[in-house]
Amino acid sequence: MDATDIMLYVSYALVGLGAVVSILLPLIKSLDDPKSLLKTGLGVVAILVLFFICYSISTNEVLPKFESEPFNLTPQMSQVVGGCLITTYVLTLVAVVGIVITELNKAIK
């Protein structure tokens, strides 16, 4: 094991620590104001509903070359991946449209 491997493991640990801290600290802070938890919960529910819709419209088609090693992709896994991709596309489009509307609104004012 050389220095590169050690640094990769350290970076993985730091990314994991950052993810845990970025989730836990706002939750601890929001315990002072329970209404903010409601807003967060509604956001999570909205994203889950969006994912369910995108999952429902994605196909479960698997090409023969992905059914064998090293992928071993099943139709269920293919549909989940398709749902994640479509959800990402929709959220990206919403973010871009939101940025454009915000900038146009600022330019008008």
Automatic annotation (TrEMBL):
TM helices/strands, residue ranges: 6-28, 40-58, 78-101
The protein's name: Uncharacterized protein
Keyword terms: Membrane, Transmembrane, Transmembrane helix
Organism superkingdom: Bacteria
